[in-house]
Give the backbone structure.
Amino acid sequence: MKEKLKAFGLPIGITLIFIAALFVHQLLLVKELPQQGWSRSLPFEESFKEKPQVFVDAEDKIHIASDGHVQTIKMNDKLAISEESTTKTKITRGYPFWTDGKQYIFYKGGNLLLSSSGEEQILEKDIAGLGTGKNDVFFWKDGTLSRYDVEKRTSSDVHTFPNAIAGMYVADNGSAVVQVEKDNTHDVLYYLDEKQLASGAFLTVDSSPNKKMDGLTFKIKDGNLLVFYNQKSRSQGTLAYNVFKLETPVGKIGNSMLEGEKVEFDLSDTGQKLMSPGGVQLMEMEGREMILLTSEGTKIGDNNTVSVYAAPLEDGAVFSAAPVSTTKHVSYPPVKISDEAIVWVNYDGADYALKGSSRNPEVISESTNWSKSSVKEAINNGVLMMFSSLVTIMTSFYWVLPSLFLLILMYIFKPNAFEKDGISWVEYLSIIIFIFMPVSYTQNAMNAYFEQMAPGYLLFPGSGYAVITFLTVITLAIWKFGRDPDWGSMGGAFYFMGTYILLYITFIGPYIFNLY
């Protein structure tokens, strides 16, 4: 019993230490910040079955319309909820809405409605659409744009465009960019300043089903109108997303038709190009002008992930972006709720949930503390990576074949070699042959996925040879002290090889194959 405990207890004990190291590493990873200056993604209790529509009012209260209700939340810079209420008001999906927490203005059945204290009132009939800002409500009929004054509770015409209005994008100060139909496949854009004075058309954008503008953000910067807009296109069943930029002096808006310049976003630490960028938002955070956007995740295993990124607003057509979100699911474009914080809707394939991130130092520090959800994520990741070790077992089985053939041949043609007392030279030779088998395998295994997933103590020049040497020394020690003399040469050789593979698959095996 003592001999069996020594023979199998030693390798199992060291294996458990390696497994523990894997889970400790995963626990440390869920504490890492997406980038310096931003907290990890913070979850909130709110979840929704229906995709919510989010509106942030003039007091930076968040109003979330979903499932026939509007939930109102007030957060501070630390993303702590200070006020919370729910109103039973059903907002029409696909249309924006406006609210101050007491009255709700939205589109329903072709009319502009006001809902307050559970009662609905028609403000305007037969409208085609509406656009809302923090303090403004615009609506239109064909090409006539009107504004509803929420304080005076009166409507007035703003401007009549030559064709039907297709949509509009309203800034916090009441200025807007209006999208007007041109033909079946194109629209043109007009600028409306904060005094509701309209410019001439300044840009033509696509509007066909297979290629169309899909969102826009703008601001006045140094006397120029700066516009970023998203383009969504479909070709042979494949969706593609691109971002374009244009800049022109305010005084020259509408003097001539302009063309947008395609821009790119590169990951700041690797230079990797972000794929399918979209949802671009211009924001000012702590006095810094920034671009926030969504794009495909860049980490291995992020194939179905859409993450939030931030990039400093600079001149040029290439911007250096860094991740903000740390979730593994689909993130929708964020909204600013304070000078330090943003929130966005996240979809995990079943439910929609509200997530947030802050630049507040206290929130950043607190976000690195373990929580129930982060510990669960670390454990799930560790278990999945342990399962990937099974692939390592199957792909490394050939390591034993040369030693096995040697043992079989020697047993057939020279059986006397196994009958010597102690450890025979055949056992030594088979072990030496086996030790060299993992060398090329390990060098190929330490690829980009390994470098991203493995802990730092496995990532240094020559780490492949160091790992093999380390595991060989440990296995030799276990073989020396744990080997049962009654096993014979063949049993001793397989004890060494089995122990080595067991240690290998738990020490670096979890970081070799990607099962995400």
Remarks:
- The chain is about 25% helix and 35% strand.
